[in-house]
Design goal:
Bound molecules: adenosine-5'-triphosphate, magnesium ion
Number of strands of chain B: 20
Membrane topology (chain A): Multi-pass membrane protein
Low-confidence stretches of chain B: none
Structural class of chain B: alpha+beta
Oligomer: heterodimer
Shape of chain B: elongated
Subcellular location (chain A): Cell membrane
Radius of gyration of chain B: 24 Å
CATH class of the largest domain in chain B: Alpha Beta
Pfam family, one (chain A): BPD_transp_1
CATH architecture of the largest domain in chain B: 3-Layer(aba) Sandwich
CATH superfamily of the largest domain in chain A: MetI-like
CATH architecture of the largest domain in chain A: Orthogonal Bundle
Helix content of chain A: over 70%
Order of helices and strands of chain A: HHHHHHHHHHHHHHH
Radius of gyration of chain A: 23 Å
InterPro entries (chain A): BP-dep_ABC_trans_perm (IPR050901), MetI-like (IPR000515), MetI-like_sf (IPR035906)
Keywords (chain A): Cell membrane, Membrane, Transmembrane, Transmembrane helix, Transport
Helix content of chain B: 10-25%
Number of helices of chain B: 8
Structural class of chain A: mainly alpha
Largest sheet of chain A: none
Strand order of the largest sheet of chain B: 6-7-8-3-9-10
Number of helices of chain A: 15
C-alpha cells in the first residue's frame, strides 16, 4: 500500500509551482540508462509480490502448490473471490463482515480525526498561544511510540470502560492516532493560506468562523483530501490495535480477519490472496481518485510575497 | 467619514511581546494620516487594533463618536488594504469588488452601480472579468483599493499597500491614492516605513519607535524640527548631522569650530547636540569667509546632487549636500560653513528637542 501512496504523492508537478530541479532535469534530458535500470529493478521487487498475490487469488488451490510454480497457463477461477463474500452456508461470510467493519471503522475514524484536526490546525496556525511550540511538540510526541508499545495499557483501560471488542473503541483509538498527524499536516497547509483573506472577510462583515469557513476552508480542500487519505490508509491497514482490542467476528476488521485465515492445519492460500486483493483495492482506488489533490498547490496563484 | 481617536493604546501579545507600548493618536475627519517607523515598531499592530483584528490589552479606540473597543471588525465600518492584497483568488475582479457589498446584503442594482463607480474611479474597466492571478501587481493593488472603496466605509486603513510594487509604479500609485483621498474627503490611516511616501502623502505624520509615538506633525514640521534624536536620525536621507555643541558668547560652538546661531531659550547646564541638515552646510574653498578648515573624506555623486562626507578638525564627520556643479576631489583641503538658520538643539541625555 505504501508504495502506491508514495507514487501518488510524487506524481506530476502542478502548474502553479515550479517542479523541483531534479524533475526538470529528468524531463529535459531523458532518463539515463542507470536510472532506467534501477527503477526497473525497484518496480519488479515492489510489484512482484502484488502480482503473485493476484495470480494466487485466481488459481485453483492445487495449482498454488505446483512445483515448479506456474506463471501462465493455469486454470483461472473466481471461486476464491466468491468465498470472500459468501459463507459456506450460503449466507454472508465472516470476511465480508470484517470488510464492512473496516469500512465503518476507517471511515468514521478518519472523519472524526479530520473534523477535530482541521480546526485545531487552523487555530494553531492563526493564533498566538502560550507555549505553542511545546503544545505542538506534545501533540506530535503521542505519535513517537509505535502502537505495540501502548497497546497493553490501552487494553487495560478499554477493559475498564467497556470499550474492548467494540467498533467504537477502534474508531476512538484510530482517531486519537490520526488527530496529531492531521494537526501537523494541516497546519502546514493552513500556514500557506495568507491570513489576510480572513482579515479581509472579517472587515467585509463576516465573523471569524464564517471567514474561516467561507474563504480558508475551500482553499484547504486539497490539503484536507491529502491528509484524510493518509489517515484513512493508516486506519484501514492498522493491525496491532485491531488484533489486541477486538476478538469477535462481528467487530473484527479485515487485517486481523485475513491474518486469522492463516494457521490451522491447512491454509486456503487462494482465499487469503483473494481477500488481500479485495482489501487492497479500495485504498488504491481512493488514492488514485485524489491523486490530483495529493499534489495540488493550496492557493490559486493570487499570492505575491 | 469619521475621525479616529486612539488613546493610551497598549498591546501585549499572549507570548509576552509588547508590540505597542503607549500610543495616542487623534486623526481628523478627512485627514490622510501617516504612521511612519522602522520595522517592528508596532505600526501594523496599531492599525489592526483600529480595525478590530487585534484586541488591545488596554486603551480606547473611537471611530467617529463610537467607542469601538468591543465591536468586531465587521461592525466598525472601515476598510483595510493590505500589503498582500488579499483578493479572493477564485473570484473575478468584478466579484471581488462586489463581495463586501453582497456580504452587506445590498440589492443587486445597487451592487452593480457601486462596482461600476469604483471600477471607473480606479480605471478597472478592462480588468473586470479577470481573476487575480491574471493581473499584474499594480493592477491587483488597484483592485484592492477599489474593493476598499465600494463599501464607502467611515475610514480607510492601509498597511504598506505599495511595498510590493516597483519604484515607478509606486510613485504613480502614490499620486493616485493622494488624489483619490482628496476627492473622496476620506479619512485614511496610512502605514509605511518609507519616509518619502510618508512625506509626500501625509497631511500629518506620526513617527513611531518601539511602540511609542515620538512625534506627530506635518511633513514640514517633522522635517524641520524633529522632536527627538530618534526622529532626527530617522527622517531625511542622509539624515541630520548631529553636532555636539556648547553655548559660548551667545553662539553655539561645535567641537570642530563650527559656529551656529542658537535658538532662543537654550538651557545652559547640560550637554547639547545640534541637528544640522546636510543642505544647511556648505563645502567651500579653503579659507573662505566664516568657514572652518576641513577635509573631504569621500564624495557620493548622485547625479542631481553630491553628498560630501567632510572631516573638520576634531569634530565628527558631517555630511553636506551640494549641487553637482560644485566639485571637490576626495582628500581635498576645503572649508566648511553653516548657511542655514537656527538649528534644532537636543538634550543629549533625554534625547529630546530642547529648543
Ligand atoms: N501575532 C503576534 N504575536 C507576537 N508578537 C507579534 C505578533 N505580531 C507582531 N508581533 C511583534 O510585535 C512587534 C510589532 O509588530 P508590528 O507588526 O506591529 O510591526 P510593524 O511596525 O508593522 O513592522 P513592519 O514595518 O516590519 O511591518 C514586533 O516585535 C513583532 O515581532
Ligand atoms: Mg507591518
Amino acid at each position: 500500500m505504501a508504495v502506491s501512496v508514495d507514487e501518488a504523492v510524487s506524481a506530476g508537478p502542478t502548474p502553479d509551482r515550479p517542479p523541483p530541479a531534479r524533475r526538470v532535469r529528468r524531463r529535459g534530458h531523458g532518463r539515463s540508462v542507470l536510472e532506467v535500470v534501477l527503477l526497473t529493478v525497484l518496480a519488479v521487487v515492489m510489484l512482484f509480490p502484488v502480482l503473485w498475490m493476484i495470480e494466487t487469488s485466481i488459481k485453483e488451490n492445487r495449482d498454488v502448490y505446483a512445483v515448479p510454480a506456474e506463471f501462465f497457463g493455469f486454470t483461472v477461477t473466481l471461486d476464491h473471490f466468491r468465498d470472500v463474500f459468501v459463507g459456506a452456508d450460503g449466507g454472508r461470510s465472516a470476511l465480508s463482515v470484517a470488510f464492512l467493519n473496516s469500512v465503518v471503522v476507517a471511515g468514521v475514524s478518519t472523519v472524526l480525526a479530520t473534523v477535530l484536526g482541521v480546526p485545531a490546525a487552523w487555530a494553531y496556525s492563526r493564533f498566538t498561544l502560550k507555549a505553542k511550540k511545546d503544545q505542538l511538540f506534545f501533540i506530535l510526541s503521542t505519535r513517537f511510540m509505535p502502537p505495540v508499545v501502548v497497546v497493553v495499557p490501552i487494553f487495560l483501560m478499554y477493559r475498564q470502560v467497556g470499550l474492548i471488542d467494540s467498533k467504537l473503541g477502534l474508531i476512538l483509538i484510530y482517531a486519537a492516532f490520526n488527530v496529531p498527524f492531521t494537526i501537523w499536516m494541516m497546519k502546514g497547509f493552513v500556514d500557506e493560506v495568507p491570513a489576510e483573506y480572513e482579515d479581509a472577510a472579517m472587515l467585509d462583515g463576516y465573523s471569524r468562523l464564517q471567514a474561516f469557513g467561507k474563504f480558508t476552508l475551500p482553499l484547504l480542500v486539497p490539503g484536507i483530501a491529502a491528509t484524510a487519505v493518509f489517515a484513512l490508509i493508516f486506519s484501514w491497514n492498522e493491525f496491532v490495535f485491531a488484533i489486541f482490542l477486538t476478538s469477535s467476528d462481528d467487530v473484527r476488521t479485515a487485517p486481523p480477519a485475513i491474518a486469522g485465515l492463516i494457521g490451522g492445519t491447512t491454509v486456503d492460500w487462494g482465499l487469503v490472496a483473494a481477500a488481500s486483493v479485495v482489501f487492497a483495492l479500495p485504498v488504491l482506488v481512493f488514492a488514485y481518485l485524489v491523486r490530483r489533490h495529493l499534489v495540488a498547490g493550496v492557493t490559486l496563484g493570487a499570492v505575491r510575497r | 467619514m469619521a475621525g479616529i481617536e486612539v488613546s493610551a493604546l497598549h498591546k501585549r501579545y499572549p507570548d509576552g511581546t509588547v508590540a505597542v507600548e503607549h500610543v495616542d493618536l487623534s486623526i481628523g475627519d478627512g485627514e490622510l494620516f501617516v504612521m511612519l517607523g522602522p520595522s517592528g515598531c508596532g505600526k501594523t499592530t496599531t492599525l489592526r487594533a483600529i480595525a478590530g483584528l487585534e484586541r488591545q490589552t488596554s486603551g480606547d479606540i473611537r471611530i467617529g463618536d463610537t467607542l469601538v473597543n468591543d465591536l468586531p471588525p465587521a461592525e466598525r465600518d472601515i476598510a483595510m488594504v493590505f500589503q498582500f492584497y488579499a483578493l479572493y483568488p477564485h473570484l473575478k475582479t468584478r466579484d471581488n469588488l462586489a463581495f463586501p457589498l453582497r456580504a452587506e446584503g445590498l440589492p443587486k442594482h445597487e451592487v452593480q452601480a457601486r462596482v461600476g463607480e469604483a471600477a471607473r474611479l480606479m480605471r478597472l474597466g478592462p480588468l473586470l472579468d479577470r481573476r487575480p492571478r491574471q493581473l499584474s501587481g499594480g493592477e491587483q493593488q488597484r483592485v484592492a483599493l477599489a474593493r476598499a472603496l465600494v463599501r464607502r466605509p467611515r475610514a480607510f486603513l492601509m498597511d504598506e499597500p505599495l511595498t510590493n510594487l516597483d519604484a515607478e509604479l509606486r510613485a504613480d500609485m502614490r499620486t493616485e491614492i493622494k488624489h483619490l483621498q482628496g476627492e473622496l474627503g476620506a479619512t485614511m490611516v496610512y502605514v509605511t516605513h518609507d519616509q518619502v511616501e510618508a512625506m509626500s502623502l501625509g497631511h500629518r505624520i506620526a513617527i513611531l519607535n518601539k511602540g511609542r509615538v515620538e512625534q506627530i506633525g506635518t511633513p514640514l514640521e517633522v522635517y524641520d524640527r524633529p522632536a527627538s534624536l530618534f526622529c532626527a536620525a530617522f527622517i531625511g536621507s542622509p539624515p541630520m548631522n548631529l553636532i555636539e555643541v556648547e553655548v559660548a558668547d551667545g553662539k553655539l560652538r561645535g567641537q570642530g569650530g563650527l559656529v551656529l546661531t542658537p535658538p532662543p531659550g537654550l538651557p545652559r547646564d547640560r550637554p547639547l547636540v545640534a541637528g544640522v541638515r546636510p543642505e544647511a552646510l556648505e563645502v567651500t574653498a579653503p579659507g573662505a569667509d566664516r568657514s572652518v578648515p576641513a577635509r573631504v573624506v569621500s564624495a557620493e555623486w548622485l547625479g542631481d546632487e553630491i553628498i560630501y562626507v567632510v572631516d573638520h578638525s576634531g569634530g565628527r564627520d558631517v555630511r553636506v549636500r551640494m549641487p553637482p556643479t560644485v566639485r571637490f576631489a576626495a582628500d581635498a583641503q576645503v572649508g566648511l560653513r553653516h548657511t542655514g538658520g537656527t538649528p534644532a538643539v537636543y538634550d543629549v541625555r533625554t534625547e529630546e528637542l530642547v529648543a
